Give the backbone structure.
Amino acid sequence: MRAYYNANAGLNYILGMQQASQLNGMNFAAFVNSLGDTGDVAYNLDQSDFFSYRLGNIKYNGSNGSYQIAKLVGSVKNPAGDAPYGYILYGGGKGNSLVQNYTTNGGQQNSPAWSKNVLSNYGGELKVSQNAIINNDTSIYGKTGVTLDQGVTFNDDIDIVGDGNVKISQNANFKGLNNTICADGNLTFDQGVVYAGRITATNDIKFSQNNRITGTVYAVTGGITCDQGVYVKGELNSKNDIKFSQNTTIIGDVYTFGNVSCDQGVTISGTIYKTSTKTVSGCSAKTDLLPAGYVIKNQCDYSVTTPTLTKNLPATPPGSSPAVSPLPPGNYGPIKYDQNTSLVKLSQGNYYINSLQFDQGCSICLDLSSGGNINIYISDSIKLSQNFAVYIIVPGGSSCVPMLDKTVDAKLSAKVYLETNNSFTLDQGGQWFGSILANKDIKFSQNARLIGSYASINGPVNVDQGFVVTYIQSGYSGSPN
């Protein structure tokens, strides 16, 4: 069964990359290239689980096109060291997948204030783990700071706000050209980060080796450090000392109330503006006094309105309710669906559930065919276990199709709202479609997939490796239908 789940994780990965690329406006040729063109590609889920795939029958039509999945195999390594055993979903005598048509699209929704951030932790630090992917223009917020692990990718403009320290780890990938970072503490860029946009920190800013920065930089009360090989195209503003290490390049002016020092090979094309009592050492740039009345203005607003749970909801019964499908709107006690329960249907209306759990391999079908909203209110916790899958009945449709299918408009996720008074957990390879507001912790495990947005009031928020989110603002009105 593990090999079967790994194969389906591979299918979710390919279709998820397609939908994210389409929403980002990526042309078909670039999308095909990002998936390895027609070569064999292997993707490790963990130390023993992986899938491999190959695209085929690729046809180009300007910026659009079509393709098939010619090979997709989920595999599990054999602990005895022999050949891994696998499950063939496509190829190997089973033929290709259906033709997948690729066209670019996009769109946003109006939303409650909290869901304008795709990722929010109003109770603590926001941590985004290795190789997560975030699509569509949006913002992220952490009450006590933000940490982005290695290889996190933002495919569009992003606003990062941390009420504390902000750390951007190695090789974070900012593809937008008008990003902003606000750190009400220290700000650290690790090695190899490329970034375009405005940067503001209340305290110190550190650029590490080979950072490439385009934009204006403000250290409101602190200093700025540039390690070896840093390149900045833009203006630097610093309350305290600035240190430029070997082979740093600055294309722009420098304004500081502190001292400035330059190591060997530093290039500054603009002017260093300072006070009469401070020194410039080792720098070959032109110097001058700060303009009269010059001040470093904080470019950020750290005031936020913490979201609140919906008020005056009916109480849910403590006794267990049967795990049935379809599950009509109503008031329920704890519900648990056993392993591999498929296509549990939810329809337009309000669900009041004490607690909700789906075991491994389950799936749900959200019926949005009537054009109405689905609101789910959980009194306690909700857990969606490994490889939980979401299907959608689109407006005017009658059948359940995967949420990553080309016929499902991602903007439909604005019509699905999930609120929990406790925690939300989505295990490895699982999916969710809609906005999430949790009173306590939120956990997205490895290779989880979200179309929508989420926020935690009291945290913590943990996002594991390979998480992919396509941001859509919530359409929730703030009260049941």
About this structure: DSSP finds two helices and 48 strands in the chain.
